[in-house]
Design brief:
Strand order of the largest sheet: 4-12-11-10-7-5-6
Number of helices: 13
Distance between the termini: 38 Å
Strand content: 15-25%
Bound molecules: pyridoxal-5'-phosphate
CATH class of the largest domain: Alpha Beta
Mean pLDDT: 98
Helix content: 25-40%
Number of domains: 2
Radius of gyration: 21 Å
Low-confidence stretches: none
CATH superfamily of the largest domain: Type I PLP-dependent aspartate aminotransferase-like (Major domain)
Largest sheet: 7 strands, mixed
CATH topology of the largest domain: Aspartate Aminotransferase, domain 2
Number of strands: 17
Length: 390
């Protein structure tokens, strides 16, 4: 039985896959079982930001895999200590909690913000305001936080204590604030919801509101962080910082890892035993993560992401000028979206046949999240095909 038949027979049918099995990846390219080469503008959904099998990451994984893979969080290890201190050095944060996925990092952020106030005796402060169209994960708490009804179907009742407001609407947010609110949680650039950046004035006003009302501000940077928007963290584009931030996806360049970062003050919400996960911050995952942060945080690397992101954005905008089917082009850095009048799916399928991997979200939007090492010539090739398909 081939891999496709076997998967379809034995793996839960929760993913609608495109009918190819991949066997090899290198840089921005992937190869399927028939030896056909593809240019990857999806990067495993904004994960393989340094490209497939980046030599330095491969070397870090191999080195760590042959030294020490797992000992549990009952003990100390150097890779975990190094990655935590590096993330704090590069961000607003003072402390890091390691998890294994984005949903788990967000789960930790939700738990931390509730416990922060409950520990202070403010037991009624449990409500978390999130944004319509947001995506925060598929566990019950993160699904409850997510502002999209379609993915909640069949899972009710969800967790109590979440409220949803339109994104980029400061009045709607202010109207939802009451004495029960413990946190506001948002993606500085919404990914799954349609590649929608926060307006600068809005994000600054949200920070001020949180300061005024002593509410914790959580940024979910699982998709938009780690260099994706041209700065190490997307909120740097806005000149403000959150109290809590979550990361995952690109942090391990493909090795599963998530992280919740917090200020010293917010971190006081957790004590010994408040939260835990067996696999959080294994030496293997954190050794890879450390190498990823070392590479992505270099100014020269981030400058290139900005330049190439701008070029890609401009080229997509030229297609908008040319084709009435294109309603909008938006995004930051290399997190870009093209909104069509209808049916992004057929373009995705046609591009796939021509050897380009992108994906469609919210029915009408083409999302481009290539490895951050993508070059102009690959972008030019994609634009040419997209032009003729449009
Ligand atoms: C912004 C955001 N938050 C959370 C998640 C959930 O991450 P994971 O799939 O690793 O649980 C995702 C995944 O797409 C995401 O884009």
């Amino acid at each position: 039985m081939d891999s496709i038949k076997k998967t379809d027979n034995f793996v839960f049918q929760t993913y609608q896959r495109q009918g190819k099995a991949f066997v090899k990846g290198q840089g921005v390219f992937l190869w399927d079982e028939d030896g056909k080469k593809y240019t990857d503008f999806l990067a495993g959904i904004a994960v393989v930001s340094l490209g497939h099998c980046h030599p330095k990451i491969t070397e870090a994984i191999q080195r760590q895999a042959s030294t020490l893979v797992h000992v549990s969080n009952l003990f100390y290890t150097m890779p975990q200590a190094d990655l935590a201190s590096k993330l704090c050095e590069k961000s607003f944060a003072d402390r890091v909690f390691f998890a294994n996925s984005g949903a788990e990092a967000n789960e930790a952020a939700i738990k931390l913000s509730r416990r922060y106030f409950q520990k202070k005796g403010e037991k009624n402060r449990f409500k978390i305001i999130t944004m319509e169209q947001s995506f925060h994960g598929r566990t019950m708490a993160t699904l409850s936080a997510t502002g999209q009804d379609k993915i909640k179907d069949g899972f009710y009742p969800l967790l109590k204590g979440f409220a949803y407001v339109p994104f980029n609407d400061i009045d709607a947010l202010k109207n939802e604030i009451d004495e029960t609110v413990c946190a506001i949680m948002l993606e500085p650039v919404q990914g799954e919801g349609g590649v929608i950046p926060a307006d600068p004035d809005y994000l600054i006003a949200v920070r001020e509101l949180c300061n005024d009302k002593k509410i914790l501000l959580i940024f979910d940077e699982i998709q938009c962080g780690m260099g994706r928007c041209g700065t190490l963290f997307a909120h740097e584009l806005y000149g403000i910082t959150p109290d809590i931030m979550t990361l995952a996806k690109a942090l391990g360049n493909g090795l599963p890892i998530g992280a919740m970062l917090a200020t010293q003050d917010a971190a006081t919400g957790f004590d010994f035993g408040s939260h835990a996960t067996t696999f959080g911050g294994t030496p293997l995952a954190t050794a890879a993560g450390l190498e990823v942060v070392n590479i992505i945080s270099k100014e020269i690397f981030l400058d290139k992401v900005c330049q190439i992101g701008e070029y890609f954005n401009e080229e997509l905008k030229k297609l908008k000028e040319k084709h009435t089917r294109v309603l909008d082009v938006r995004g930051k850095g290399l997190l870009l979206g093209m909104e069509l009048d209808k049916d992004a799916g057929s373009i995705v399928v046609e591009l796939f046949k021509k050897g380009f991997i992108i994906n469609g979200i919210q029915d009408k939007i083409l999302r481009f999240v290539p490895p951050l090492i993508i070059e102009k010539q690959e972008i030019d090739r994609l634009i040419k095909e997209l032009d003729s398909l449009l």
